[in-house]
Task: structure prediction
Amino acid sequence: MSTKSEESLRGDALFDAVGNAVSKTPIWDLHTHLYPSSFGTGHGREVKPDANGLMLWGIDELLTYHYLVAEFFRSIGADHAAIQNFWALSKCEQAELIWKRLFVESTPLSEACRGVVTTLARLGFDPNESTLDGYRGWFRDQSPNGQIDSVMALTGVTRITMTNNVFDDNERQRWLHSSELGSDPRFPPVLRFDELVCDWPNAGKRLNEWGYVVDVELSDSAVNEVKRFLEDWIARMNPVYCAMSLPPSWRFPVGESADQRQRAGERCLVSAVLPVCQQHGLPLALMIGVQRGVNPLLREAGDSLGLVDVSSLGALCREHPSQQVLCTMLARENQHELAVTARKFPNLTPFGCWWFLNNPSLIEEISRMRLELLGTSFIPQHSDARVLEQLVYKWDHSRTVIASVLADKYQDLQAAGLNVTQKMIERDATRLLHDNVYQLLNRG
Result:
């Protein structure tokens, strides 16, 4: 006689089992822009406020996130003067305008707006308030560290992987002046260095300023200095992986028509970045497809996307089979080729539905396609959160979609004659939401 865990689940029992497993499985969030309070926080009673602090949290940060800023400008048909006037306001004043326009005077139908509604409701608020006074009062009474604990408990996220950009002066100085920044086990560090591959002339200039002797041509001695630079920061951060954001124009190999900048970027990647990553057993995460500053007036809200040459990713994985590569791409049109490429290269793992893809309809489509092509050998989602409380809605919404897709696929298996058990469901949920990341990063 079979035990309960071995019984095949059907109908409502199947959907309930999948929903429960996906909702309760601990999550390792592979890619965020979140930080603990040791990186500075702009408000709160537990630490001294830091105007340039990297830990963003609270209602005003939620409302002035660039997704909502872009939507606000669109809703009012903002001209140049209106946009400049908006940027001259304080963050609190900007948040007031966005709340009034997008949540009080309009129905918050977009995913970014619905995310704020979900977050407020899950934190115990009534999201139907006409003013922000009550929300602000509550957040003022919280401590940054207490809020981190509360959000992690609410979301079931046990690891919040940071993104630590060594070319960002604000963050770089914090690392240089504190040996404790990477010590919080809840926030594993990631060493990011876009400029090394995307803008070597600027990166080389900065490295020379920091005491690494390099040249424009990237001579052998300069390559060794880039390696030394990476080694120094790996020792300082102890990152779980390295990362780069690349434009749609990125190619590998660069080809005969490449300019000096592109050739230097490829040499830096092949001769310095990849050898150091392989020496330390560090995966390299590539986030490809951002078109920066399409509308500079909108600042962070002015970035867009472009189609990627996926064959370049395949070439990189083929020529460097011992390098584990994580990849997410921004354009919907690239997702099928990315999944097919991952079938061909075991050292390639697709991850997440990034930025403009972080919408339920697209998460469903992409997750379904990846399951059909890759089984459970991918990472279905990462939050990409920049504000702490965004973890609430991004994972709440994503868990719901992932559970729905899994339940449909289990029904397909049952129709083909396979028994679907509780043990099977829990194993798959754990792989997708936690263990695939754990095994790639080899960390506890």
User: Anything to note?
Assistant: The CA atoms of residues 176 and 383 lie 28 Å apart. Residues 390-416 form the longest helix (27 residues). Strands lie at 27-29, 157-160, 164-165, 191-192, 242-246, 284-288, 290-291, 304-305, 325-329, 348-350.
